[in-house]
Amino acid sequence: MKQLENLIDRIIERVNINLRETGMDVGPYIRNALQLNHLVKFYSIYGFSPQHPVLFSFRRSNLAGSYFFGKCTVDLSVVYKSDIRGDELKKRGEVYPFQGSQISLRDDEVIRIRDACLIKTLVHNHSHDPEDLETFLIQNTVALHYANIHGAPVEGCFLGPFSTVDLTTLTDCIIGTFAYVQVGELSHQQVEPGKIWVKSKDVFDFSYCFPKKVLDNYITLEPDKKPRGIFIDFVDARKADFQEIFDVVNLKASISVPSNASVSRYALVRGESHISENVLIAQRAYLENAWMGKGANAQENCYIIDSRLEGNNVTAHGATIIHAKLGKNVFVGFNSFLRGTPDHKLTIGKGSIIAPHTIIDLDEPLDIPAGYLVWGYIRNKKDLKKHNISAQELSRVKGKFTRGAMKFQGSGAKFVKAFQHRIDHILEANGAYFAGKNNKGHAQTEQDIAFNIIHPYSKGRLKGLYPSIDIRP
Amino acid sequence: MKQLENLIDRIIERVNINLRETGMDVGPYIRNALQLNHLVKFYSIYGFSPQHPVLFSFRRSNLAGSYFFGKCTVDLSVVYKSDIRGDELKKRGEVYPFQGSQISLRDDEVIRIRDACLIKTLVHNHSHDPEDLETFLIQNTVALHYANIHGAPVEGCFLGPFSTVDLTTLTDCIIGTFAYVQVGELSHQQVEPGKIWVKSKDVFDFSYCFPKKVLDNYITLEPDKKPRGIFIDFVDARKADFQEIFDVVNLKASISVPSNASVSRYALVRGESHISENVLIAQRAYLENAWMGKGANAQENCYIIDSRLEGNNVTAHGATIIHAKLGKNVFVGFNSFLRGTPDHKLTIGKGSIIAPHTIIDLDEPLDIPAGYLVWGYIRNKKDLKKHNISAQELSRVKGKFTRGAMKFQGSGAKFVKAFQHRIDHILEANGAYFAGKNNKGHAQTEQDIAFNIIHPYSKGRLKGLYPSIDIRP
């Protein structure tokens, strides 16, 4: 195990150098997140399909990591429990339009994680950075439990647990616990825990921050300790159930799936669940008594329990939905935690948007009308008032606007439009609009992923490390 | 599946060119051995350990294949259900003594299978060919069900079902069904079905041939048909049991194993079985009510059922032992089939040698005394008489000698000595003599093989093919 320990030391050193101006030492966090004795027992699964150019290439020494999908190359890197979906990588010759230019790709785009240490990170790339379209770089970045890196390169950063970096090119930043940033570009900054921040240059700027006391109850991180709180307890309680589906090489489908829908072999589906047409259930999604209407999707690490989603619903990475009824086109953003109970049901009307990192944890039944945007921390009707606005009202906003702790500035109309445009893109990419032969998306193209199961060395100096592996079509 | 079909065509063409002077067309045999629909469902397991330099490198297009172990590179090749054990590969700088010369290896030895098509072949290399110590080449060779290639390179050959090429460098040969050759070198020859042939230049020459009628009952091959007979039925009846242990990613040990012994995670052990010290149970070995004494081994594809082996026993690749009691140091050669019944038990005395490819299928109890060599086809005491000789008597033979259908020429003493020397080497290599820290062998070094499970593409043109894969330490 000596080499594995050396590797971790080297990575900590590199990340600390990137973050030197903050004085942060990521060592205690990394060492706590990586239990060496456990790592040795893990195995990894690597998905590939004929639709996606395959190149997994782990160099030097690597440990765990599961579900690379599409091109990837990793160097001296700890990649642990990470989904790294490269299924939206651009291909050679493809033309990327940017501000009037037509940039042609000289090579297939690859995800290139260098000297880096990701811990439990999902990277679902769809890069919007025109500066290097061929490489999606993630270097010297540490991402703690259930942090999401999504759609843009990230360098020299520390991502707290349950934080999300969305469509944002990040350099040398610290993103606090449960913080969400979608701001295009961010450099040498610290984002405080629980801050939800959506900004598009001078066009609009939306922000909200969870009260520390509330956040601590759900998720909190202290140096030298593991992250703890309701989020962690919730996930941990379901870990063992997942283990069962990872223990078997070929799993028989537990539910009937229409031919134009896709349920990952590594999703867990139980109880009275239903899969309609064009539905996508991703790896590590958890469904229990979940009714999924046509075109709905359940992305990686999301939990949908005792709930009904009418159709074209997006349940983004890491979102949780319990005892809820969601109308058509309801969007639930990253890492949102919506918890009704049998007595306190949650209903959300058609087309409403639950902002990423929203916590709705009910102590009474709650009904969110159609066409609303909701954010923040909500336990009941009273809370809702300060944490929602109708799309109509928001569209009329120009300049400054506040509601409760939410601050907005800029064009409400453009904010609403951008959000709706994005949801539409997500549905399209995931295959919700598939009809006959047209509009294929992930639900149609990811039905037949094959998986390789890779074990680390079980003995000796290399114990816990994986042999370097190169996979080519 | 188009590319898989193309690949098979190309390989057939290449093998036929090698065998052109015989007029043989291997096409019908290969196409029958490879059921494309099944191939698509298979997955492969690849073993590696810190003791053995890892380099699996499949180029272009490959299909199944399980349990590569140690360095290997494969090119445009169908490798299907093959164990290819490279755990005795020589290392760079190692010195190989040959007829007074001390040949130093310029590089690690690799197994290099080129353009080739192996079908269900075990290759356990320990090359004795001084001409190219760095490459163990197997090119354009087709090996049907349970054929063994063992310890030497083989080029442009066709190996019938249950045939064995042992320590013999082979070029452009056809080895008939259930034939066994251990003759050092063989070029442009056809060996008839059922021929057992052990030859060392002018020193000795042992041969026996099974009557066609007897052989057909056990194993027979016709063009355009699958091999059939008792051997095939026996193996097929146990296939489903093996499937269960391949279906699980991490299998719990089913039996207690001493710390200096090794039971492969892909062996099947059931009933009242017992593993003593220094025992080696290899991948795909089948044990049922098997008592394995100290230093005994059960090699790949062997079956030991309702039997007791006292210790230091070799059960070579593909051998079957049922309702038998074997004294210490009894050796059972490749693909031998020893079948007693509850009423017709077989006992074999200390140090006796059952020649490779011996069939003992009892219709009465049989007792083989200590210190004998046995070969051929035996159903009872009467048969035994024509198919055995004591080591003592054989050692006195000089020149020509026959017994039954067995023909011998040369030095009996040297033949006996060579055989005993080899058995001793096998026991040593397998770790039977391990004591404290000395004499480590496979039983001690192969306890901690880790396995990668690789799936083929499940869809599209590449269906049934594996992505090319490179694994490095």
Automatic annotation (TrEMBL), chains A, B:
InterPro entries named in the record: Hexapep_loop (IPR040730), Trimer_LpxA-like_sf (IPR011004)
Pfam families xref list: Hexapep_loop
Alphabetic keyword roster: Transferase
GO molecular function, one term: transferase activity
Top-level taxon of origin: Bacteria
Protein name (Swiss-Prot/TrEMBL): Transferase
Organism the protein comes from: Candidatus Desulfatibia vada
